[in-house]
Amino acid sequence: MKMIRITRITRITRIKRTTGMIVAMALSMLLAMQAGAETGYELWMRYVPVQNQPLLNSYRLQINSIAVNTGSPTLRIVKNELISGLTGLLGKKIDTTGKTALNGILSAETYNPAGVSGKAGLKSLLEQTGEEGFVIATKTVNNKKHIIITGNTDIAVLYGTFHFLRLIQTQQNISSLQIISTPKMKLRMLNHWDNLNRTVERGYSGSSIWNWHTLPGYIDPRYVDYARANASIGINGTVLTNVNANATFLTPPYLQKVKALADAFRPYGIKVYLTARFSAPIEIGKLKTADPLDPQVQQWWNDKISEIYQVIPDFGGFVVKANSEGQPGPQDYKRTHADGANMLASAIAPHKGIIIWRAFVYSNENPVDRHKQAYDDFVPLDGKFNSNVMVQVKNGAIDFMPREPFHPLFGAMPKTPLMMEFQVTQEYLGQGTTLAFLAPLFKETLESDTYSKGKGSTVAKVIDGSVDQHALNGMAGVSNIGSDINWTGHPLSQANWYALGRLAWDHSLSSEKIAEEWLRMSFSNNAAFLSTMIPLMCNSRETVVRYMNPIGLHHIMGTSHHYGPAPWVSNLNRPEWNPVYYHKADSLGIGFDRTSKGSNALGQYAPEVRKLWEDINTCEEKNLLWFHHVPWTFKMKSGRNVWEELCYNYYTGAEKVKQMQASWKKMQPFVDPQRFDQITMLFNVQYEEAIWWRNACLLYFQTFSKMPIPSNYEKPDRSLDYYKSLRFPFAPGI
Amino acid sequence: MKMIRITRITRITRIKRTTGMIVAMALSMLLAMQAGAETGYELWMRYVPVQNQPLLNSYRLQINSIAVNTGSPTLRIVKNELISGLTGLLGKKIDTTGKTALNGILSAETYNPAGVSGKAGLKSLLEQTGEEGFVIATKTVNNKKHIIITGNTDIAVLYGTFHFLRLIQTQQNISSLQIISTPKMKLRMLNHWDNLNRTVERGYSGSSIWNWHTLPGYIDPRYVDYARANASIGINGTVLTNVNANATFLTPPYLQKVKALADAFRPYGIKVYLTARFSAPIEIGKLKTADPLDPQVQQWWNDKISEIYQVIPDFGGFVVKANSEGQPGPQDYKRTHADGANMLASAIAPHKGIIIWRAFVYSNENPVDRHKQAYDDFVPLDGKFNSNVMVQVKNGAIDFMPREPFHPLFGAMPKTPLMMEFQVTQEYLGQGTTLAFLAPLFKETLESDTYSKGKGSTVAKVIDGSVDQHALNGMAGVSNIGSDINWTGHPLSQANWYALGRLAWDHSLSSEKIAEEWLRMSFSNNAAFLSTMIPLMCNSRETVVRYMNPIGLHHIMGTSHHYGPAPWVSNLNRPEWNPVYYHKADSLGIGFDRTSKGSNALGQYAPEVRKLWEDINTCEEKNLLWFHHVPWTFKMKSGRNVWEELCYNYYTGAEKVKQMQASWKKMQPFVDPQRFDQITMLFNVQYEEAIWWRNACLLYFQTFSKMPIPSNYEKPDRSLDYYKSLRFPFAPGI
């Protein structure tokens, strides 16, 4: 399979066409493109010509020729990417001999003392870049001006290649480059919650892109395009299967299917991981138990893991969701999470694999505030996990809310490498029809200070290993990728996939920088476009917070599908599945008291954090109702009381969607018609949904506050009963 | 929505780019295309430049300018299609003023006495073409040479436009045209077996393209592309929903979603139809019964249908699967199918809608040969259906087998318009990984002689209404369309969608002609390519018959998913769901005796047909085991006995797949790399599956025949137990 992309290029020469033919074809393709054929499939790698003519001329002068040694599949990809990228961007045929030009050679090579990278003296720079980091430097070698892309491994060169192409895509100056870039985290992963039947849990962009039925014989070209897209943003691992796991994936026929994907991904530097169903020894091993201390169980996993590595020698490891939401786990046998994780870790250690054990656990038998349960379960286990175990922690303690204070586990398990789990798919942020650019959400968590080793112990530094000196470190995002032609359904949601990759590589990047890169590559380098769209993107998530979950409200979404508002639901089996559990609105006030007078979830944070949030007067208002039950009459900094502040936020949020609609309309000159129309329709839908959220929530909370909606706002035109009557039995993603 | 495609084109002029820019963009697009970017999304409308240079020159001379009055959405589509099509095909910018050229004007207009169509004297020709037929004629008008595309309606002009583009795509001479084309059938439909949750029953190309959740607010560009593709082959109706129906589709929110699709499809001449859940009055109407003779039930349907027409004024009507495979129906109330159909027909008649009532019925309480049950149920009802009811009959009496004798209902209900139901999706023909070009299957049924009004009363003439003078007539195909980028999964399966449309328009077209058109447009006009690929396509279904269901075997596929062989299955609840019911292999012989000594299903055919098939010596061998239980030692015309003939067919079938693989490899110079690789992989899979079929079936039947596989064939390398052990719990399409 890895040959496919290569043969595509080499075969160009085989297709014989006259010059007239080429011009004709080119014209027709151009017109087709102008006519609106941008489907979004190309993501941020559209490689359309640089539109700034002086810059284009300058690029053309500086890149006369490329030189790539194609000694490995990865380096062949490097070469092909440079050819297709530069051909598109520079609008000229790219010389690949590396010899013809006096000046302007672009050279991509894995560090070679005898090659240009060696002659250019780049060795010392490469001492900082590890296995995956790269250097891009302008150097004169043999009297010729070179741009050299290099690294210590082939994959590093591929990362550098995509970075270099990004410089041109975003119209940066390349005349004197000295870029050294090393990923801040080792594991940069996507988690696919994809099922055997191709449904995707919390997926809103069609079905799973993995067609398990036709694997391994048929390699959908999309698999390769997927790997390429991930490599372009530095993602180096993918968990193919849902954390709500199915043991069938561990059977021999399915391992062959996984192998086929691993083979397709390998040249792009991407390892495959699977989710392990803890009870697999019973379900497919025919054992009577899955007790992690049972020798037969241990042997079964040893054998199974050896079998996997025979098929996939560079298999990454397992992600495990255990004893959570009905999944089996070690606690079924009165063992701890560490017992379970270490059993798997011992079995996989000889093969250099790792176990990623999820901390997202809560139990309906436990009356304690759900916010506290992961901490209670896991902190006592700190130091008890094997060295090849990571504990994967969601950004917050509840569940991927539009806004969520950082998880108290960050900083609380210094002896254990914690992996970040973000959600790229927008389960709770409007799903497939909402623009919520998530970089600001990711950044907000990453920049939160845990104070675990004093001020500056940010979540980012906890998970990149620098606070507690962990060699294993990483960040994962629950994928928003599906079978829709544009991968993510909402064309602008591609930016969230992009942001996850970029932040996993470098969490110091700002949201604005990420938005800018993505917008330039995906749409346009036009300044007027960017000056509107960068803030529009970066403010979009805050807008969603305003009209869904303002001032610390959370988890008041519709039952099960989490689509739309349903703060009134109170009849579900498990108390913590009911929205009323979270908002606790009553005649006196609203919000969840997590202070020492309430659930004392705040007791799980460092004293500095606890103190800040414990005091209703110092707690940031954005988190107010998260930590406090606040009287309706409580005065906010704005001078409004809590009820008025809710009204203000809900109305302002909806209004801001309207403003996004209006701003977007003005972007028409800069955007291809197809995507312009798609996004226009989606903003219309989002506005309707914002009104729905606003009206439903305010009408409901008003039954407690007993206060009027301020008269400057238009009254809801539907009744609370109407909103309560809505049902979405076929909402996607369940 | 209907505006979208139009704005795409008009907006071209708004995008300002320099000439250098245009050349650069064109070159980059060209190189991208050469590099293998053919995803298949464009179907047979790729509009790549004509590669025959003299012909291209001649086309360019003959089409200097186009003139289209854009007075309706449909005519705007005509104009856009001509612009994008001719720009691509001719590789030049198309003048649209209609004035500049002295000669060579392409004019598309709905017949207009004062326009070129009138001046050219085309009125008389248009008297033959009805509402949908078109004329394409070369005429001199006002001293200028015109090619005139015209018809009595805008839609007719659109059909003519696609036909004209097809002439150029397939490199036909256009210098002196006089084409008159009128569809042989009024209703040319696709049936989508698509469910609310986006699964597709018997779908093998991803999920449903209908995203019910984001409708009506979001119109996926694919909906418009779908309508355009259908219009290009004359399809004018689509049943959006599965025949195993869900009443939810009839609720107000879903009718708004259906309306959004209807609006998108309307300019392309496509009406929407839904499936009616017979028990909907109970499920969503809260009635206690769905008895068709109950006045409340009748009123409920009257009201519901009026509601639908208020939302969708040109709604097509309902398709109903009743009292079949567990679906509710009038027999639940001891009423007949006619009672049920007429109740709906009366309610929909004032709105000019129709009811399509399926004859695919069989019951597990009925011990009679399943082959006979539809006939037994329906023939007594002939003449009892209202005039706006059609009865939709599958091509054969069992269920879309690889080969099936024509259904005995054809010709047996002269007073009732019968609609043909073919299956385009390959439920029983290898599903998503098999090339089975179905035009020969469709043709085989259509050309079968029912003898109902004497010799020449072919099935085609029964369903086109000419045998019994029915004004209502039509042909439907169960769609093979899904969310895969190339629509149909297997790139070559697009040809089956194409064939369905072309044959519904003109059933006299040969399979070879259809294959040729499709191959020329979808791949290449190269003569060497066509001379290999036309026969390869046309023989492919016969190959599938050979290695799956030779000499009249049928329905021996895997349980429920119908993937792969499982002739041994005998434990399912309903006798007629078990393969053993159909092949009846025993120590004496094999096959289903449907003669007068057996089930006498043959008694349902006209005497001429019955006589031919009743006699084991005159029955075509391809149907032998369909109608006869034949001793293992029976001598076939080949001189082989039945067992040897089975061996011959199974081995030859697999061998022919190998030959297709080899032939395809030689097509590499003519095919873009992406599709070449995809099809190569699929032929590899198909070969493995052919071996599986061959080995599994022969090893199983050998347990009855007790005869050896002839020694000239390689022995199966797996055991029967191995094949019996295979399970596919997550096979698609269930």
UniProtKB/TrEMBL annotation, chains A, B:
Domain of life according to the entry: Bacteria
Classification via Pfam families: Glyco_hydro_67C, Glyco_hydro_67M, Glyco_hydro_67N
Substrates-to-products reaction catalysed: Hydrolysis of (1->2)-alpha-D-(4-O-methyl)glucuronosyl links in the main chain of hardwood xylans
Segments forming domain Glycosyl hydrolase family 67 C-terminal: 488-713
Annotated EC: 3.2.1.131
Record keywords, A-Z: Carbohydrate metabolism, Glycosidase, Hydrolase, Polysaccharide degradation, Xylan degradation
Subunit text: Homodimer.
UniProt protein name: Xylan alpha-1,2-glucuronidase
Organism: Terrimonas ginsenosidimutans
